[in-house]
Amino acid sequence: MDDYDFDEFEQSQPEPVENGRSRWKPVFYLGLIFVLIVGLLWSGISGVVWLVQQARQGTAVTTENPPAATNQPLPTFDPANAVNRIVYIDSGGQVATIAPDGSEPRQLTDDPVRYQFPAWSPDGEYIAALGGRTLVRLTDTAESDSVELYSSRSQNPFYFYWSPDSRSVTFLANHPSGIGLHLAAGDGESASRLLATGSPFYWDWQADSTQILIHAGSTGENARLALLDVESGSVGPNVAAPGFFQVPDISYDGRYWAYAERDGSGNSWLVLADGQTGEVQRQRHAGQVALGWSPVADQVAFISTSTNQMDFTGPLRLMDAATGETTLLSRDPVAAFFWSPDGRYLAVISLDQGLKGDIVEGNGRRTLGKSNTQTHPDISLNLSLIDVVTGEKRRLLSFQPSVIFITQFLPYFDQYALSHPIWSPDSLAIVLPMSNGRTTQITVVPVSGGSPHPIAEGDMPFWSQQ
């Protein structure tokens, strides 16, 4: 992920909000600017810029056909019987948890700082969250045990990702050379340590929590796509010349790696590499590509634009790691997708292409004056469900997301999909921050087609993995 200037942001805001990371040269609509939270940090604005830019791109495709659809009813989600919990940031900026039916609310922090992007450890025992200049670990109890995992006055953390064994937390922090990837012990018993630097920085854990596949430095001579050993901190040789993508991904069983590779002519290819046989499946793509492995099968879902602009919003496809065969799942301008834990479904967020606007010159960034105005863009996103077995696609709803969802979560969905789940662990519901024009509400959406139900006021909701 890209870095950001915490001090500059702090000076321009009445209260801290989620950190931003600058993105591509934006094209966006001036009408949206006047309804944004005035004073969003520059990179936050570029997130909105990114969103609207995607809505203007064409997504015509002329190849693959989806498999025939069949009507198979989904099990009904019953929040009263769900044993898992949702963590979120409440309206006061504090970490809170709640049951999926809205019962048993619990506030875990009561501090002067505003927290951001909480996430459960995979075993469900702990919660980590960003708070001001610190990374803390919490317990989901009435008297939450808060442990500081990292703190710095100059190198501020802005993203984290638990290890699969729940024993460590990797996180990004600002660094003199760009961005630093750090490792902190989940028990807080030892000091965190710097593993590597680069900008931007993306990664995925191996299932045994011993190594990390990193992509640092985007593309070009100084970019790295390599395996990092967690114990020693050593980085191996480049696997390939990184192409136009963000997050590398490792298959659920560790056999395959997925990434984009740039060839000698400057073209970028989606690559699925078999670690057992050495075989490689390749698929040429335009623009950037965003990808994600199925959690149970040797299949990669991916999106890429149909133009050569450096964006990835576009048709959604599925690629088989063994054969290289691709299947078109959606022609819509897909901005993000999320695998259900059982690997059967993809939750798909697509854009409304009815937006219109003008081009902003230069780097697209615009500084707005300070204000206490708490309005945000009136943007509607579409949430759909795709059955990857049958190819059936069902539109679930349209919703107005929170500002942070637009500016921080969507542009980096492929990284957040690995660390901050929005799916319930039983694959029956999704949690989203939905705005009603006045407040943002934590909303549970049953994928069986039942009515979405708000359960609390707040933002940045993420489900436990158990």
**Number of DSSP-assigned strands:** 28
Low-pLDDT stretches are 4-52, 54-71, 354-376
User: In the residues, how many domains can be counted?
Assistant: 1
Helix content, binned percent: under 10%
The proportion of residues in beta strands is 35-45%
Number of helices: 5
Q: Report the C-alpha radius of gyration, rounded.
A: 21 Å
Given the C-alpha coordinates, what overall shape results?
Answer: globular
Query: What is the CATH class?
Result: Mainly Beta
Q: What structural class do the secondary elements suggest?
A: mainly beta
CATH homologous superfamily assignment? TolB, C-terminal domain
CATH architecture: 6 Propeller
Oligomer: single chain
Major sheet description: 7 strands, antiparallel
Question: Termini separation (Å)?
Answer: 27 Å
Strand order of the largest sheet: 19-20-21-22-23-24-25
Mean pLDDT: 82
Q: Could you tell me the CATH topology label.
A: Neuraminidase
